[in-house]
Design brief:
alpha/beta, Nucleotidyltransferase, domain 5, 11 helices, four-stranded mixed beta sheet, disordered C terminus
């Protein structure tokens, strides 16, 4: 049983993952939880982190008391907002130490191992981050109300909006619109009821259906995918203009959106070296060994 270990958590608007590695980097266990955006729903995020952590501990053969020996790296959606971050840190007392950053930062750290480069997160939401010569460039990621144009939430919401246009006779009916109306029994009131309480993740669940119909040349689906791809390209262009030598795509929409991006970007897109959850572990690892080195010098 390890004396001390690292746990990384990568949390977004739809789900979070936890991974445990020992001091030598060996994988001990993994777990999953629900949405972990600490800005939009801090209590839910805390519960999702706890669920993922407990599952990873169980897979590693460890109990919750072992967290007192765990050095945690948390990369969470919404962590760029100080109020939510401060509150979470004040309530996280179970770990030996905690490093908290945005999900974009740990994605960058995992993708480029701390070297110059950029990442575009294309998932439920969307954002970009590049670090070039120690300068940080953040792009988008301001939340579904005013941003996230290349994310699944926006795609799903727009699909419902334009499906209602079809129902009203304001737009031509397509296979995608008909499929969505069928899901709601051709009752627009049910779409309105769904939208009244829908989360970002609820909207994003329509993304696979949209891509399915886009591949079948459905006009509405193609419009939605092209708009998301244009927004993603805009993020990537900004990161490249800031000096990023390459950009890695991260998230559930990264692979399906890739063929829709402008061909001019293909030479600048590189696969990530590791996953965001390992970027979170690397963040905790760096903080621990930096502190240990300082402690040794002081001793």
């Amino acid at each position: 049983m390890p004396k001390q270990f690292f746990i990384g958590v990568d949390g977004g608007a739809t789900s979070c993952r936890a991974r445990i590695r020992d001091m030598d980097g060996n994988l001990l266990g993994e777990g999953k939880g629900g949405p972990a955006n600490i800005h939009s729903d801090l209590p839910l995020a805390k519960e999702s982190i706890r669920t993922a952590t407990k599952s990873a501990l169980a897979a590693a053969g460890l109990d919750e008391g072992s967290l007192k020996r765990a050095h945690a790296g948390l990369g969470l959606a919404g962590a760029g907002l100080k109020t939510a971050s401060d509150r979470l840190l004040s309530e996280l007392t179970c770990f030996a130490s905690v490093e908290l950053e945005t999900d974009a930062y740990v994605a960058w750290l995992g993708a480029h191992k701390g070297r110059d480069g950029g990442i575009a997160i294309l998932g439920t939401g969307s954002c970009g981050l590049a670090i070039v010569k120690d300068r940080c460039i953040a792009v988008a990621g301001w939340g579904p109300e005013v941003s996230d144009e290349a994310g699944g939430q926006r795609m799903g919401r727009e699909a419902l909006r334009r499906t209602l246009w079809t129902y009203d006779g304001r737009a031509e009916e397509t296979g995608l619109a008909a499929a969505i109306l069928t899901r709601f029994n051709w009752e627009p009131a049910k779409i309105v009821s769904f939208a009244a309480s829908a989360s970002s993740a609820d909207y994003a669940r329509f993304a696979p259906l949209i891509f399915k119909y886009a591949s079948a040349e459905d006009a509405l689906a193609i419009d939605l995918v092209n708009e998301a791809a244009e927004a993603a390209a805009n993020i990537i262009d900004r990161l490249l203009a800031a000096g990023a030598p390459a950009v890695s795509l991260i998230g559930g929409l990264a692979e399906p959106l890739l063929p829709w991006l402008p061909p001019r970007l293909s030479d600048f897109i590189t696969p990530p070296q590791s996953e965001p959850v390992d970027g979170a572990i690397l963040m905790a690892h760096r903080a621990f060994f930096k502190l240990e080195a300082v402690t040794r010098r002081a001793g």
